[in-house]
Amino acid sequence: MEPVFIKLSCPSCKEKNTVKIEKNRLSCTQEKCDFSASFCCPVCDSLLDGVTYFQDELGEYFDCHDCKNKVHIKRVKHLIDNKLSVDPQVRCEYCQGPTVYRQEANMSHRCFFFQNARAKRVFFQVGSVNP
Ligand SMILES: [Zn+2]
Ligand SMILES: [Zn+2]
Ligand SMILES: [Zn+2]
Prior knowledge:
Elements: E1 4-5, E2 19-22, E3 25-28, E4 36-38, E5 53-56, E6 59-63, E7 70-72, H1 73-81, E8 85-91, E9 98-101, E10 110-111, H2 117-129
Antiparallel strand pairs: 1-2, 2-3, 3-4, 5-6, 6-7, 8-9, 9-10
The protein binds zinc ion (ZN) (3 copies).
């Protein structure tokens, strides 16, 4: 399966497009660089030791043992690339999922699962009105 690379430069060697996400680990692919870090569940901050990884049409994902959310590795990449934080306290009004926000940009909360939950809902409503 294709590795997922984050957009931000490596915190250690400062090279761009060299840090990949593999399961819950970030590591730099530069030979001389040994940057490596692991991350916790972006929704509830639980350790991800022992979680099982699955694959679907959006790529690799895991089911968190604690918050029971399905988290795609590409979603984690999106959070890192856009410096977003997850706020499990504020729920999406459309799907009741957790929301993300950007601390310094004063950005309003957005749905964690759907880039545009509102558009999605309209789509579902239109679909369900069909005779
Ligand atoms: Zn590096
Ligand atoms: Zn979790
Ligand atoms: Zn939502």
